[in-house]
Design brief:
One of its GO terms (molecular function) is N-carbamoylputrescine amidase activity. With 295 residues, this protein is α/β, with parallel strands linked by helices. It has a single domain, classed as Carbon-nitrogen hydrolase (Nitrilase/N-carbamoyl-D-aminoacid amidohydrolase). It contains 5 helices and 15 strands.
């Protein structure tokens, strides 16, 4: 029988360090989350390095790793030891010239429950991801694990209702959003409140529209590794929301933290029974959603 209740966690960290140190740090924090009862644990986007997409520099491709190498070996052993599911977002080298922004979903026995490759790739000032990442080709997927059915999307994916919907329609109970998002320091005073508010609002909307739990894991800290630039001030504020968009746990803007909340499948079903959005979808009228524009 599936678990009716289980605990999920997102870990918010400063990851502005070298890969070896970030790996050790994340292993320690996952252990802490498991010791507090977390059963499904997510790290932030691109956990193993600073956010290198602030520039277009071929030297940064050296940060990528092949499938089933360093990150998978370490977190597979940890998941098996602790009996937890771990979501591990990493920079994947698929082959020469093809790289992805990816995430392992590692099950409680250390096996790969699933792999997700980020589908939506941004290209904004100091978020030059199109230079590095090939768009994902595995689609939107719900991954069954021994703890529950989870969907993993990554950062820029969080702005797209279609991604949340297609994942939820496959049975996801939780949508995890490993993230690396922050302010341009020179814009924070003018735009910061609205930018952060929009980020939270859109994901809470996904929770409501799909009757799912949503868990966003962001990083913190000023990452200013390029000379003569202001860098990016990652805004933290990781959170977990319930199926009515209610905030179950929220982190600060500037502290390393673990957030834990309980997934209650009976509650989820009750919400969907009372707000039957899936029942009332007019799928016969949605054909044009696959067009770039309706003109």
């Amino acid at each position: 029988m599936p678990n009716k209740k289980y605990k999920i966690a997102v870990i918010q960290l400063n990851l502005n360090d070298v890969a070896e140190n970030n790996l050790k740090k994340c292993i320690s924090w996952v252990r802490d989350a498991a010791s507090q009862g977390a059963e499904v644990i997510s790290l932030p986007e691109l956990y193993s390095s600073h956010y290198f997409c602030q520039s277009e520099d071929v030297d940064n491709f050296a940060l990528a790793e092949p499938l089933y190498s360093t990150s998978f070996i370490a977190f597979s052993a940890l998941a098996k030891e602790l009996g937890v599911v771990i979501i591990v977002p990493f920079f994947e080298k698929r082959m020469a010239g093809i790289y992805h922004n990816s995430a392992y979903i590692i099950d409680t026995d250390g096996s790969e429950a699933g792999l997700y490759r980020k589908m939506h790739i941004p290209d904004d000032p100091h978020f030059y991801e199109k230079f590095y990442f090939t768009p994902g080709d595995l689609g939107f997927k719900t991954i069954p694990t021994k703890k529950g059915k989870v969907g993993t999307l990554i950062c820029w994916d969080q702005w797209y209702p279609e991604a949340a919907r297609l994942t939820a329609l496959q049975g996801a109970e939780v949508l995890f959003y490993p993230t690396a998002i922050g302010w341009h320091p020179q814009e924070k005073e003018e735009y910061g409140v609205n930018q952060h508010g929009a980020w939270m609002s859109v994901m809470k909307g996904h929770a409501v529209a799909n009757g799912v739990y949503v868990a966003a894991a962001n990083r913190i800290g000023l990452e200013q590794y390029l000379p003569d630039t202001a860098g990016i001030q990652f805004w933290g504020s990781s959170f977990i929301a319930g199926p009515q968009g209610e905030i179950l746990a929220q982190a600060s803007h500037d502290k390393e933290e673990i957030l834990i909340a309980e997934v209650d499948l009976d509650l989820q079903e009750n919400v969907r029974q009372n707000w039957p959005f899936f029942r009332d979808r007019r799928i016969d009228a949605f054909g044009d959603i696959t067009k770039r524009a309706i003109d």
